[in-house]
Design goal:
Helix content is about 40%, strand content about 20%. α1 runs parallel beside α2. The longest helix has 16 residues. It has a single domain, classed as Transcription Regulator spoIIAA (2-Layer Sandwich). The strands form 2 sheets. It has a 3-stranded parallel β-sheet with strand order 1-3-5. Strands 2-4 form a two-stranded parallel ribbon. The two termini are about 20 Å apart. By secondary structure, it is α/β, with parallel strands linked by helices. The chain is globular and about 30 Å long. It contains 3 helices and 5 strands.
Length: about 90
């Protein structure tokens, strides 16, 4: 199954744990693909990036995947500047 999760507008130290919980709950329910819809995300900090990397590893460990969709140019630039763009599954659509 596939589930789409829209995170808060800011994925930071305060909101990243809630995103992590939502994605892990989805994987535990048997969803094999979790799409994190970044449409409304204006800011992502190191805590948010850390959670996304951790979720990616956890999903792969249980045979699933995390897809990051609809990232703004700003968010994509943050992924590129921090060097995580290759480690994360960022959809170009």
């Amino acid at each position: 199954m596939r589930r789409v999760i829209p995170p808060a507008a800011e994925i930071d130290l305060a909101s990243a744990p809630q995103l992590g919980t939502a994605v892990l709950d989805s994987l535990a329910r048997g969803d094999r693909q979790v799409v994190v819809d970044l449409t409304g995300v204006r800011l992502i900090d190191s805590a948010g990036i850390g959670v996304l990397l951790s979720l990616q590893r956890r999903a792969h460990a249980c045979g699933g995947e995390i897809v990051l969709a609809n990232a703004s140019e700003h968010v994509r630039r943050v992924f590129a500047l921090t060097g995580v763009e290759r480690a994360l599954n960022v959809s170009s659509a």
